[in-house]
Amino acid sequence: MKTIQKMYEHLNWANQRILETLQSIEDKNQEVNRLFSHILLAEKIWITRLRGLDSSRLPIWSEVDIEVCAELVMQNKESLTTFLTNLSNTDLDKLITYTNSKGKEFKNSVQDILTHVALHGQYHRGQINSRLRSDGFEPVNIDFITFVR
C-alpha cells in the first residue's frame, strides 16, 4: 500500500504541474489538450469502475477546455485519495468486473487497475512533454525522483 500511495501522490503532483504549465501557455496546442483531457477522463472512468459503478457511457477521448481539466484534476485527486484511504492490503486482490466503452466485460484486480492508471497517465504526460518541446516550450519535469526529492 505504501508504494501505491506514493504512486498516487506522484500522479496528483504530476497532473498539477502539467495543468499549471498548460494554463500558462497562451498558444494552445489542441493535441496537448486532448491528451491531458484523456488522462483525466480515463482516471475518472477507472475511479467509477473501482466504485463498482457503470463507466461504459463516460467519454474517454473528449477534448475539454482547461477549466474543466482543472476541475477534473481536483475531483480525481479527492476521489482517489478517499478511495486509497479506505483501501486495505487485502482489498488489493479484489476483482473488479467492468464493461468497457465497446461493451466488452473484463475482470481485473484493484492492484492491477491502480497500477495501470498510474502508468497510463505517465505515458501520456510523456507525450504531452514531447509535443510541448516540439512547440518550443520547456517540457515539464514530472520525473518520480524529482517528486520524491
From TrEMBL:
Binding positions (a divalent metal cation): H38, H120, H124
GO molecular function: metal ion binding
Family: Belongs to the DinB family.
UniProt xrefs under Pfam families: DinB
Keywords, in A-Z order: Metal-binding
Protein name (Swiss-Prot/TrEMBL): Damage-inducible protein DinB
Domain of life: Bacteria
